[in-house]
Amino acid sequence: MPVKIVKNLPATKILQEENIFVMDDERAQNQGIRPMNLLIVNLMPRKQATETQILRLLSNTPLQVNVDLLYTTTHAVKNTTQGHLDSFYRSFDEVKLGYYDGMIVTGAPVETLEFEEVDYWQELLEIFEWSKTHVYSTLHICWGAQAGLYARYGVDKVELPQKLVGIYKNSVENHKHVLFRGFDDSFTCPHSRYTTSDEQAISQLTDFEILSKSEETGLSVVTKKNLREVYIFGHLEYDRDTLNWEYQRDKSAGITVDKPVNYFPEDDDKKKPQMTWASAASLFFSNWLNYAVYQRTPYVAARLSEHPESDFDFNLTNLTSADSAML
């Protein structure tokens, strides 16, 4: 949450230079507070596991968050019952008239396919285009990050020599960036993918910043400077046993796959995996929800459609009579 201080206090400038959010009495008195509305586009096959992982992280803040779960209707779901989808999920047609402060696009085990070969690709393109005017900040995860960069900017994916799977140390390139407030110099993160996005192409996007990477994983976190789009190539949301479940699944299917690195104690897959990324996951999702969503989204979310590429700094003093009627 922001720190409220006396207006014009000398410390204000220093704190702002460190990207620490502060507000004076005037703004505090006029700031409107309302629940955050989030949409989770769940593309993972084990939807219940993924929704639990993400909701756990979103709940670790003092903010009230209303969540809608979305599934792609153009894909035949095999690992989740239709009853679960009917009870807890919504289709794009059911949400497209609404506005959301934030959206999360999960990964998907389809990175070996060309984007256009994915059966729900056209539906996902429609969601991405819609989000420009109906969502303030979107967090793209793993394949969701690669898909978002390709759809929005034509950034191609690059096939890796072999599957990148395990727990890897990633850098913090900018300690003052709000998404990495409270982080140490590095953090560990699960990665599980066959491809990545073209780093050279991303470096040429002038309104983007690379926030985290490593020699082993390449890019880890990149963001649009106005925080309207955040891309993470790892899986901070993974549970302790998720990589083990994927490893055992692949072995049972007869797929030759290496053990996840830096995961099993003494590299023994019969031992309980080590959990070393939980604190980083909690902090990253909390920072995104607080700094990229809560502190920036317009109080009246429908105003997103007026300025689809803008940064916002709205509070109740900005409201017009028309806005007030929408509350």
From TrEMBL:
Its main location: cytoplasm. Substrate binds at K163, S192, R249. It catalyses: L-homoserine + acetyl-CoA = O-acetyl-L-homoserine + CoA. The record marks S192 as: Important for substrate specificity. The active site is at C142 (acyl-thioester intermediate), H235 (proton acceptor), E237. It comes from the Bacteria. The record marks E111 as: Important for acyl-CoA specificity. The lineage of its organism: Bacteria, Bacillati, Bacillota, Bacilli, Lactobacillales. Keywords: Acyltransferase, Amino-acid biosynthesis, Cytoplasm, Methionine biosynthesis, Transferase. InterPro entries: Class_I_gatase-like, HST_MetA, MetA_family. PANTHER family: HOMOSERINE O-SUCCINYLTRANSFERASE (PTHR20919:SF0). Its EC number is 2.3.1.31. GO terms for molecular function: homoserine O-succinyltransferase activity. The keyword Protein biosynthesis does not apply. It is found in: Cytoplasm. This is Homoserine O-acetyltransferase. Transfers an acetyl group from acetyl-CoA to L-homoserine, forming acetyl-L-homoserine. Pathway: Amino-acid biosynthesis; L-methionine biosynthesis via de novo pathway; O-acetyl-L-homoserine from L-homoserine: step 1/1. NCBIfam families: metA. Belongs to the MetA family.
